[in-house]
Every structure is written in structure tokens, then in C-alpha cells.
Hints:
This protein is mainly beta. It contains one helix and 28 strands. The strands form seven sheets. Strands 3-2-1-28 form a four-stranded antiparallel beta sheet, with no helix packed on it. It has a four-stranded antiparallel beta sheet with strand order 4-5-6-7, with no helix packed on it. Strands 8-9-10-11 form a four-stranded antiparallel beta sheet, with no helix packed on it. A hairpin with a 4-residue loop joins strand 1 (21-27) and strand 2 (32-37). It is globular, with a radius of gyration of 18 Å.
Amino acid sequence: MISRLAFPVVCLALAGPAWAHEVYVSSEKDNTISVIDTKSLTVVRTFPVGKRPRGIAFSKSFAQLFVCASDSNAVQVYDAAGGHLYDLPSGEDPEQFALAPDGARLFIANENNEVTTIVDLASKLVVGQVAVGVEPEGVAVSPDNKLAVTTSETTNMAHIINAATFESVANIAVPARPRFAKFTADGAKLWVTSEIGGTVSIIDIATLSVERTITFKIDGVGADHIQPVGLTFTRDGATAFVALGPANRVAAIDTKSAEVKKYVLVGQRVWHLALTPEDDMLFSTNGISNDVTAIDTATLRPIKSIKVGRYPWGVAVRPLP
């Protein structure tokens, strides 16, 4: 018997998304990538990768998948079916990276040696390294390809870098343990999540200063469990979604007011987020419950939890024609 409370969720799951795409998920403990079909919301294939995969992203053409194999000290490149093509040099212990919008370079955070490594994708060579703070992790490149940023977890800074010359532009203090950074579509703002600080800092690029700080409050959840990590925006820029770690929630934020619209309950220890191209579904990786939560963005309700490998971490969506 289906309860009244469960019925709407079941209906949403049966309705499914308007388009079929694939969601790729890295699992740190299993050294695998799981591929989820967005129509059936099931895992359709799994393939092995290097040791401790974390950050993942697709090339501009979506023909290649980049994987930060942290304990293999490489950024590995796969085809969409899971065939291993080659490894890129990455520096020691790559954790996250950002593909420049023009598709020419990867900017890679090397957690253990306090640098950002820049790799030219055409030559497959390291073309630069920039010293940053202790335990670099989050990386982003501005939409115009002019600026890159790396966050340092222990130094508690967002390090702004000239993406052409690799020179340091600014070091901006943010609350404790910044984990992720993302530019708005117009490049005017930079959002930085701080895990231990429990905040999101909005940095104005014109002044290179923090103009606003977003905090979170969830009934029944201690402040020490609210740990912002992953972040993404809808295409229109109206909504930001923030993964809140052991709070087991995703915050939906109105970007104009910087106010939280809703907290969405997901799996345990939510890490990172990805949207479908139509922005109709959001997927969260839940590191302790070993699953991915599919969320309907129109209703801001979870649709289904999908079991994947152990300790899912990174997530990227591959549009299908």
C-alpha cells in the first residue's frame, strides 16, 4: 500500500526527465566510475579508473572524461564508454581541476605540494605551476578565460591567478576550509564554499573583495554539521545549489537575494552536485550512504536514491543527443 506521503515521490520517479542523459560518478574507495541513465535512474555501466578518483569533468565535446586519480598522481582521460585513452601529467595528489572555458587547458589543484598545475591539452604537457596556499582544492576559471582561482583549505584563502601569465593577482581571505569555487556566468562574482566556516563567500571580481557571506540554519541540525562543499548554478543564474556535507542537505539559494529557498534532504555526507542541461534534475553524490540522490528542480524534492560505488565523490553530466 502506498502512503499519501510517498505517492508524489513515486509519481515523479515514474514521470522521469524530459530528456535522456548520462551522469558519471567517481567512487573513491572502489576506484570506479558509475554511469547513471537519467531516464531510468539506474546504473547502466561501471568501469575501473585509477586510484582514489575524485574530481571529474568532460571535455568541451563531451567525447572525453577527465578524472583526478589522486593516489595515481595523474589526471586520466577516458572515452565515454570507459576506455582508458591516456594519462596527463598533473603534479602530486591532484584533487580537483577546472577546464578552461575555451577547452585549451586544465588548472589542477595539487593538495600535497601547495601548487596549481596548468596542463596544455593539445601538447599534453605542463605549461606552468603556481604556488598557492596549504592544501589547495577548489579550482575555477572565469568565463572569459582571464582568471583562475584555487582555494587553499588550511591557508583559508581564494588565490586569484592570471590565467594567461600564471601570475598571482590577489589572495582573498575566506572562512575556514574553503573547498569549492565557481564563477557566475557573467564572471562578475565568484562563489566560494567554506566547509568548517559553514558559509558561502560571494567575491566581487571588480574589487577582489568579499561582498557578502551566506550562512545556513537547519532546524534539528547542529551548526557543526553544516559544512558547505560542492556548488552549482542553474543556467539562468537565478538559483545556486550548495551541498552541505554531513547536514545531509542541499541548499537551494535565490542568487539575487542570497537567501535560502529550501533545504532538500538527500543521502549521508553530500559532496558534489551536477545539473542536467535542461536544469530539470540535480544529482548529489552522498559519500557515506554510497548513493546518488536525484532531485526534481521544479519541486525541489528528491525523486530517487541510486546506489553506486563506495564513497561517491565527483559527478558530471554527459548530454545525449
